[in-house]
Structures are given as structure tokens and as C-alpha cells.
Amino acid sequence: MEDNRFDPLLITDVHRQQLHSHHQIRTHTPIVNFQTSVMNESVDLCSKKAEEISLQNQPNEAVSAKDSMNPIGNDVLDGATGIEGVLDDRNVKEEITWRNSISEAIGTEDVLEDEDENVIRRLSLTSPDLVICSGSPDIPSRTCEDSPKLLKQPSLELSFEYGITERSRVKDCNHTPINTNDNLGSSETSFELLSLASCEENDEDCEELMKTKRALEMMRREHESKSKECEEALKSLRELQNELMRKSMHVGSLAFAVEGQVKEKSKWFSSLRDMSRKLKIMKMDQIKLLIEAEAYKKHAADMNDMSCIIQSRFNEQVAQHEDLKIRFNEGAKERKELYNKIQDLKGNIRVFCRCRPLNSEEIAEGASVAFDFEAAKDGELRVKSNVAFKKNFKFDSVFSPEANQVNIFEDTSSFATSVLDGYNVCIFAYGQTGTGKTFTMEGTNENRGVNFRTLEELFRVIDERKSQIRYEISVSVLEVYNEQIRDLLVPSSQTGVAAKRLEIRQVGEGLHHVPGLVEAEVSNMDEVWEVLKIGSSSRVVGSTNANEHSSRSHCLHCVMVKGENLVSGECTRSKLWLVDLAGSERVAKTEVQGERLKETQNINRSLSALGDVISALATKSPHIPFRYFKFPWLFKDCKFKSFSGDSKTLMFVQISPNENDLSESLCSLNFASRVRGIELGPAKKQIESSEVLKYKQMAERYRHEMKNKDLQMKKMEDNIHGLDMKLKERELKNKILQDKVKELESQLLVERKLARQHVDTKIAEQQMKDDLVLTLSRQPLAAFKLLNSNEENNQPNIIQQEPPHAEVKLPPAVAARDLVNLDESMEKENNPYLTEPLKIPKRNGRASICMTSQRAPVRSVLPRRNSLIPLPTTTTITRFVTTLPSVENDECCMDEKSNGSGKKLMSALRQSLNKKNQFKSSLQPRRAGLNVAVRVSIGPRARRLVAAANGRRTKQQQQHNCCMEKERRWNIGGK
Ligand SMILES: Nc1ncnc2c1ncn2[C@@H]1O[C@H](COP(=O)(O)OP(=O)(O)OP(=O)(O)O)[C@@H](O)[C@H]1O
């Protein structure tokens, strides 16, 4: 018979049922393993016993499946129950999932096919990683009928307390399903096996059962120890579980991170995909561009070819252009030369004669015309007056009264071109008052004069040449009234106030300038007209008998032209003077008085000066009287320069047709003829190339700088001279002071010598007195001793010179000392063969052994101080005296101390002398340094140095003088 009591399927089934009742799943692999192993051992024992019993009790084969299997199920469940408190509840789905995952992880799951059921899941109890799980809906309920073989087995009760006891057979269990609730309700671990026989009946069996019980007891204990181990394992399991949880969490977080990365990567991949798409598009574009580039390359090659062709053609054109330009410049030059040759042929000074028509008054008076204008076309003017002698005048042009302003300007316009070509031009009108000068030059609004038309012509030509030459035009208007220059472009706000008066300044060789003159820049004729109107309105006009609006001044329009050739860079500067002279008049005829008379006189004088200049030029006089009057002086730069051959001049000689004015007209005509007769060389073009102009400006600037530097040098030289003078003065003073110092020093030396001699004399006197005292006190030996002493001191006649009546009283102390010495000397005298010579103290220096009482008169006699140290007080001398050795001390000591006092005296003298020398030596180098500083630098810093050094030196000198004076006073009387 096969034993199927421990059919794992059954255990699983029972277990499932228990778990169904609790609706929980409790698993713990190690515990289950342990429980299983323990259980297996118990079961093995039980099964062995049961087999034995069953062999003995064959009839009682029927065993309740419930009784036989429940203990095992309980044990398993108890193990599971133990786990129950540890593990968390899980819902069914989680359990299934978890179980499946665990099962998959273990890999020990067996699928058994039951006889009745199709397929069920079963877990092996012997598996080391067994996890008992139940409650799964896929595990069906099992009954005892499912294992009918088990019912035939005897039932044993396996208990830890009582061992395995054979209790009873299960009755009526053949068809009764196992009630698991009855057995699984208790958590107590017990194995109950129903026995088919009772213990009481079989004692042997009982004994064996007891043994079994003991064995079970052992097993229980073992079980307890194992349960403890189990608990520890449980703890470790928990830790492992926690670790697992943490790891799972970590894995989760990693999974999350991985998921994020995956997302990012997916994004990245998507962007990569986009990029690759774009790249593809770009590649396509690139291909297109490459194709286009190829096409462009081809085009570029074609273009290069074209550009080469164009460049060559352009070069050709440039060459042609250059050639044309050169030709044009040459042509222009040629034209200018030819033009100027024509002008030269015509003459640099041209004189046009214009006769005004008879005015209404003259017509009314029935005045007759004095000139014949029939040959005017040929420039001839014939005087037809019967009164005057007939004379023909030849001018460049003669304009009859019928000639209008246009006719006049036809021959004048060429001068405008000359101005723009760089020539100075002067156009002026000359004639008697009221002959139409102003009319010719200025004209009226309806009949514009030469001024306006010339400027108009200038701007016309400028406009023609604007592509080649750039011009700048400025205009000044001034008048010379009563020999005063006035600027007529000064603003009209100064009405009623005298216009600004100007002065002429020479700014260079033959160049004059009027500083402060207004130069109005004009760029078109409207501006020109405005300027001309302003000048005209500001001019001094007066009424005379000859002319209602007579000009009382010379009016000058100066048009300055600056030209720059844009092709060649040539620069030109030229001037156009348009001058309306005041009319000459005869005072007797016009009967002017007062201010008008003065004006007339000035006008006539200036015109006379002009006539003189022209006469001088005409006669080629070496002296041209340019500077007699301001008017011609001013004209020197322009008009008169024209007469010198540098410019071109056009003179309008205005005449009156009236026969009554014939004499004045003839004067004017004669003057004009003289002007025309002046022989002039060819006009010089005022060309200044840009470089020449630049160099001229540089030269002018350097000249100016040189002037400034010359001025500075002069100032510096003056300063240096002044400093030298001061330096010499100071050196002289220094010399005088040094001489004084030397004198004082020599005086000081003399005084010192005298003082020393005096002191020596006194000391010698005192010494003599002392020697005399000694001689008197030791009469027998005196001669011998003194001779010895005098031999040493080279003073053999001292005693002889000493007066014999000198009386010196010895103090008691001295007497005692001398008595002792006398005793000794007497002894030696009585015994002349004594080897030891007589000890007589040597006197070194000038020290004396005189007593204090004896020195006092000597001290009082001293008239002068024997030291420069200012200590001539009585107390000091007393101290000095008291420090002298007393008579009580031995002579040797006295001599040393007296020698010391003498040394003191000498050292004091030496010190004073050294101080003097130091003072002198300190003065000498400073003087040397001072000299160097003064000689090297001459600026303000040097002056400060000199002042500081002088101050120092003066102070030192004063101190020195003060010291000398003090010393002298001390030496003299100690005041
Ligand atoms: N050619 C002319 N045609 C018509 N009128 C003229 C002509 N010349 C001069 N006149 C007139 O003669 C008068 C005097 O002329 P204007 O003032 O120009 O003389 P002037 O020589 O300037 O005199 P002054 O020297 O006194 O200034 C004016 O009224 C002027 O209009």
C-alpha cells in the first residue's frame, strides 16, 4: 500500500483552505523551509511508526484524511501564521502577481495533473525557496474524497506534549469532506494522528510511544532553538526585505530616471530625426547651391573675361582721356597764351574814352558838342571846337554819347576772363565831375554799369569752368574820403555814426593789407548785387554846382578771386579792382566852400599824386612816388602794380561833350594819353601751384616763429645778464665778508697767543715762588736739589732771579710733611753712600704746588680768559681750585693733578681752535656749492636757490660775527 499521507498537493490544499478562511496569504520561504524540514522529519518518524502500527493493526486502516493531514496543515499554517504578523496585507491581485513573480524567480514550480482536475499549481515543500501561497482562485478545494487512499491510513495524533498517540479512527469520514475549520482554528502547533489502536491496550507500544515522546521533546526543544534561529532569520529577512524595498525603490527611481533618459533620448532622437531631415534638406540645398555655384563659376569666368575686356577698354579710354586732358590743358594753355598775347598786343593798359550825352540843362542852355565822334570806331577822338586848337586823341576805344552800357562792356568783358586766368585787373574811371564816371562804373538799376557786368561775366565764366576749376569769390567795398579809408560794408546799424576807419599795413614785399576790412563771400549775382547796393548806399555823396549827386570820395570795389584747377592742382589768386574816382573840379568854377572845398582839395591832391605816379612811370623815372598819399599807396598793390607790369589796367576817361567844359575835358584826355603812353612789359600771371603756395605759407609761418623765438631769446638774454649782475654783486659781498672773517680770525689768534703767554708767565711766577719756598725750608740740600731739578727743566737761573726777601709762610700741614722729608734727607745726608738716590718730585708741565690761599691772588690778577668756553665765573674758578690736590697728599699725586689741570686748559684751547676751524671749513664747501648752483641754472629755481643759499650764508655769517664779537668781549673784559 502506497503512503500518500504527505501528499504535497493535499498540504497545499489544506493550506489553501486555511488561507481562504483568513483571506490572507502569509509566506516566508526560510520559515516554510524550516517548518517543512522539521515536519518532514516528524512525519517520517510518524510514518514509520504508523506503518509499524498499521502492520500490527491491519483492520484499522481507515484513517481519516482530515486527522492524518491536519497536523501537517496546522504546522504549515502555524508557520504561515508566524509570518502573518510580519508581512503586510496584500490584496489578492498583488498576491497573485507577487506569487507568480516569486514562482518565476524560484523556478521550482511544478505543474501536476490531477486525476480529476485538469491542471493545478503545486509548490514543492522540499524546495529551498519554497513559498506557500494559497487563496488563488486557480487552486480548487480538495476533499478527502480527492485522496481516497489516505482515508485508508490509520490516524495518529502527533503532539509535542504527548507525542504521537493513537486516538481513534475517523468515523464516517469516507464521504465527509475535511472540515478544515475545526483543525485550523487553533494556532497551537500539534500533530494529531489518529491511531487505530489504544495505548492502554498495548504497553509496549506505550513505551515506544514514550520514547517517541522524548524524541519529540527533543525535537520540540530543537524546534524552539530553530524557532529562535527562525526569528533571527526573520529579522534578517525583514532587513533583506527592507533592503529589497529600498533597492526596489532605487530600482524604481532608476527606472524613472531611465524612463526620463529614455524620454530625453527619444526627444533627442526626434530632434536628431528633425536635424537629419533638415540636413537632408540642407544637403539638397547644398547640392542646388553647388549646381548654382558651378553655374556662377562659369558666369564668373565669363565675367572675368568680360571684365578683362572691359578693363582693357577702360584703360584704353583712360589713356585716351589722359591724352585728351593733356591736349585740352595744352589747348587751354595755348588759348590763354594766345588770348593774353592778343591782350598784350592790345596793351596791358588800355584807355577807353567815353563821352556822356548833353544833359537837359546843357541842352536848354544850347551848349554845343566839342568833339567829333566820326572816327570813334578807330579809337580816334577829334576836338571840333573853334575856340581850342584842334587836336586828335587816340585811345583803345572811344564811345560816343550814344553808346550804351552794353556797348561799353563788350570790350571790357575780356578783362573778367583775365581775372579768372589769374591776372590782377584794375578798371577805373577818371574824369571831371559830372562826366558820368559813376554812371559808367555803377550804372543804374535799368542800366547796370561795369561793376555789375564784370562780376556777372566772372560768374558766367566760373560756371563754364566749374568742371575744371573751383573758384571762390569775395568782395570788399571801401572808399577813400578826405584821405581816410572807410569800409562801406559795415552794417548799416551805424547810421549817423562815423563809419569804421581803417589803416593800411604792409604785410610783405609789395603787399599791403587793410586789417579789419570786411570780405563778403559771394556765390551768385544776387549776392553781388546786394553787396554793390550796400557799398553804393554807404558812399559819401554831396551836391555841387556841377553834379547834384557828386561823389565826394574815391570808391573801390575789390573782388578777390581764388581758383584751384581740379585737374592740375594749379592755384591762382587774383584781384579785380573796380574804382570810381572822385571827379576833379575847378574850385573857382564850382564855387565850393567849406566842407566841399576841403573835399575838392583832397580829391584834386590825390588825383595830382596819381598823375605824378603816372608821369614817373611814363618817363621811366627811378623813383615812383607811390606813398605820398593813401590813395596811390593803396593802389600800389592793384592798380599801380598794373602800371608796373604785373597786372592789366583799363581806364575809362570820362569827358563832357559840352564845349564849356572843354578845358577840363582836354586835361582829362591829356592825362589819359599819358597813361596810355606808359610802356609796360608783359603782364605776369599770378600762378601759384599748390606746393609753392604751401611752401610760401610754411616760410611765412617759420618767419613768424623765428621772430617770436628771437623775442624770447632776447628776453632770456636780458634775464641771464641780470642774473649775472646779481651774481657778481653777491660774489663781491662774499669776498668782503671772507676778508672780514680772515681779519677777525687773525685778531683772535693774536689774542690767544697773548693770553697763552700771559698764563705761562703767571704759572712761571707761581712756580718760582713755590721753588723758593722749598729752597727756604730745606736750605742744606736746596742747592743740590734745585740744581738737579733745574737741569731737568733747563731753568738754572730761576733761584738766582728770585728775590731773596721773598717770604712765604708754610701751613702746618706742609711743615709736617716737609719735616718728615727733612728727616729723611738728613739721614741720607749723614750717610752719603746710600744706594737709593734722593727722591725729588719731577714737575711736568706748568702745574704748580702752590696752595689755594697762594693761588687766589694769581687768579685775581688774571685779566683775561684763557679759554673760549664761556665760564669766567668765580664759582667755576673756585671749583677748579678746590679740585687741586691738597698738601696732605703725596707730591706725586699732586704733580699728576697739576698736570691734569694744565692739560684741561690746553684741551679747552684746542677745542676752541678746532671749533673755529670746523666753522670755517663748514663755510667753504657751501660757498663752492652755491657758486655751482648759480652758474649752472639761471631760471626761477636757480634764483630761489641763490636766495636760500644767501639767506643761509648771511645767517651763518651773522652767527659767526656774533660769536667772534662775544669772544672778543670775553677776552677783553668779560662783559
Ligand atoms: N552815358 C550817359 N548816359 C546817360 N546819362 C548819363 C551818362 N553819363 C552820365 N549821365 C548822367 O550824368 C549825371 C552825372 O553823372 P555821374 O554822377 O555819374 O558823374 P560823375 O562823374 O560820377 O560825377 P562825380 O564825379 O561828381 O561823382 C547823372 O545824372 C547821370 O545819370
Automatic annotation (TrEMBL):
Keyword Nucleotide-binding applies: yes
Residues reported to bind ATP: 431-438
Record-annotated Kinesin motor domain positions: 348-678
Source organism superkingdom: Eukaryota
GO BP field: microtubule-based movement
InterPro entries membership: Kinesin-like_fam, Kinesin_motor_CS, Kinesin_motor_dom, Kinesin_motor_dom_sf, P-loop_NTPase
Coiled coil: 206-250, 699-754
Residue spans crossing the bilayer: none
Keywords: ATP-binding, Coiled coil, Microtubule, Motor protein, Nucleotide-binding
Any GO MF annotation of the entry: microtubule motor activity
One cellular component term from this protein's GO annotations in UniProt: microtubule
PROSITE patterns: KINESIN_MOTOR_1, KINESIN_MOTOR_2
Assigned protein family: Belongs to the TRAFAC class myosin-kinesin ATPase superfamily. Kinesin family. KIN-14 subfamily.
Matches recorded under PANTHER family: KINESIN-LIKE PROTEIN KIN-14Q (PTHR47972:SF35), KINESIN-LIKE PROTEIN KLP-3 (PTHR47972)
Protein name: Kinesin-like protein
